[in-house]
Amino acid sequence: MAKVSKGFAAGTALCIAVALLVWAVAGLSWNHKLQLSALTLAIVAGMALGNSLPQQWLEGLHPGLKFCQQKLLRLGIVLYGIRLTVADIAKLGPRALAMDCIVISSVLLVGYWLGTRVLRLDPDTALLVSAGSGICGAAAVLATDRVIESESHKVSVAVATVVVFGTIAMFLYPVLYPLTGFTQRQFGVYTGATVHEVAQALAAGRAVSQAASDTAVLTKMMRVLLLAPVLLIVGRVRARGSAGSRRVSFPWFVFWFGAVIVAQSFLTLPKAARGDIIDLDTVLLSSAMFALGVATRWQQMKQAGTRPLLLASIIFVGLVSCGWALTRLLL
Question: How many domains are contained in the chain?
Answer without folding.
Answer: 1
